[in-house]
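Protein modeling request. Please complete all fields; requests missing the sequence field cannot be processed.
Requester role: graduate student
Desired output: 3D structure, token encoding
Chains: 1
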Amino acid sequence: MQWTKVLGLGLGAAALLGLGIILGHFAIPKKANSPDLDLEILETVMGQLDAHRIRENLRELSREPHLASSPRDEDLVQLLLQRWKDPESGLDSAEAFTYEVLLSFPSPEQPNVVDIVGPTGDIIHSCHRTEENVTGEQGGPDVIQPYAAYAPSGTPQGLLVYANCGTEEDFKELQTQGIKLEGTIALTRYGGVGRGDKAVNAAKHGVAGVLVYTDPADINDGLSSPSETFPNSWYLPPSGVERGSYYKYFGDPLTPYLPAIPSSFRLDLANVSGFPPIPTQPIGFQDARDLLCNLNGTLAPATWQGALGCHYRLGPGFRPDGNFSADSQVNVSVYNRLELRNSSNVLGIIRGAVEPGEPSSCPCCALGATATVSPPSPAPRAHLSLSSGSLPLFLCSDRYVLYGNHRDSWVHGAVDPSSGTAVLLELSRVLGTLLKKGTWRPRRSIVFASWGAEEFGLIGSTEFTEEFFSKLQERTVAYINVDIAVFANATLRVQGTPPVQSVVFSATKEIRSPGPGDLSIYDNWIRYFNRSSPVYGLVPSLGSLGAGSDYAPFIHFLGISSMDIAYTYDRSKTSARIYPTYHTAFDTFDYVDKFLDPGFSSHQAVARTAGSIILRLSDSFFLPLKVSDYSETLRSFLQAAQQDLGALLEQHSISLGPLVTAVEKFEAEAAALGQRISTLQKGSPDPLQVRMLNDQLMLLERTFLNPRAFPEERYYSHVLWAARTGSVATFPGLSNACSRAWDTASGSEAWAEVQRQLSIVVTALEGAAATLRPVADL
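Delivered output (778 residues):
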């Protein structure tokens, strides 16, 4: 009928009009919808980030202890919500997401104690239960007693042995020395292995309980007297005790791979794994001195010696001419308890002007159009199937740039984590002010996050990634983590995946370094940490990401390009493994203000670096992720495998040929993609074409995920950055498997696992290369 033709023509015209509006929407430059990074806005943000405001943020954040789930932690949740909802400097929206998670606390009624007990059961000596109140801030009612979170309760008693760092090799050395470990109490020092691993290794050898201390040689450059330590310097006082989580995994222990929300399945406590198997308690080095300097037995190896002012011996038991009788034993009484507590993440969002294309601004949604999303295709781009009467909504999907830090601390937490939160609040204030004035809106959405319960095992960020797994994997461009913003004030330190190197370098070249002289942050950084690149020459070293902060679930679980940014110390001037008051009651505002960053210029430098990176990732037309920078990493991993494992693998009829081919394929496709981007940047490219390329850049990291690669690990699925226990600096699965198979016969299960890990890496690299090819090519 005639009217159906008219209607059809009308619908067709409407569709074409809608398509034209879409293309015009993304092709016409607008102030709040600029096609590329606005350098004026960038300069404005750099100029408005205020060191004094960061200082005042830190003063407020660290004013009281704010252990996860405590009343003060909840107060800070409300502070963040208030700031991010401020009518003049707030964001588009802010919301708290609460999870019920399993945390561990010492008993207020029965404090944990460490005593030296005589043969008749009388207490001869007791270690300090609290840290010395040197500034009036260490004795408050909200200062949590030092403890090992998730260590089980118990009261083991036995002869004392010194086990260095508590590694498996350390306990084997004690056995080699003829020391019977069954029923003993092991004194260990921080370092060498993770906290929880010390108890796991000890239990394997029959040890009944573990003590952990910080040796002045590892944190204080050997200094230990009160006159040489805080509040007279940045060094740890003798009574300082490093708290921490001893849980093996990250995330809520009861809901692995599920968000800790009411509807989720929870494990029975009896089925939870990853807790220390024996009672464990941290102590200060003044108490460790009383124990260690009275030990009997063989002199400890030279590499086990420290700075407590005596010769370290192995034990077991005390020497007869010391302060305690030779038959005295050490009793470790731990009364920790597990509790379900509510812990919140706080999210603040600045909506993107172009990506997402929200209902109020998206021309498709404004026309009331609909679209049907088809299942994901092998090609790295969102896919829309168009039906009669529908309009393409390809560009209506969000793209997120995430920036986060945790909020909770063990005590006042001025450095860890409040230095990072102070920077986060200042950066969100500056961007929020521009937003509220109508001066600026980013191309892509920016999400600011304050994570809860990180100190107990990255719980808040992990629950977030579990709850929004699919959405985050599909839409997140990158994750920026600023936890401890300032360890010290010498130089920048960045850890990250290779594609973020380019944007970090671009940002730091444009920002002046704090201190005298006129160096950029980049030029100052290269003086302290550098490497020789076959492509770029001498460049700053970008460290790799482990699992020490909230970037871990984003890179290992979701495969999102990530980075961690901080200012740190000059390694040539200190041997400290971390800033000395880490996780103690001495990590206070005055500690930062007097010793770490007087004037807060390093905090400001971190804010400017993070701010520049956020703007470049959220506003640039072409995503500033350079996938070809992965080629150097892959080539170095390959060379290490060839040089250090090649002959061994050949003996077992395992060829590295497929791996060589896979690396070469990746290198070629990465270079070709870079060339296509360079060609497009010289012209006036179709926005849809740019979007396809950007999706390839964004999704590359996901191609390195294999959730079945490491079944013995939890959340680790990135085949390039999983934990490496093998000695060869190559692909971690291959390195670890070869280390386990080294002394086994050909045809064993261990060598079958080597072959499996090699296949996993080859498949991942071939998939990554395929992702970088033009979308139309399979």
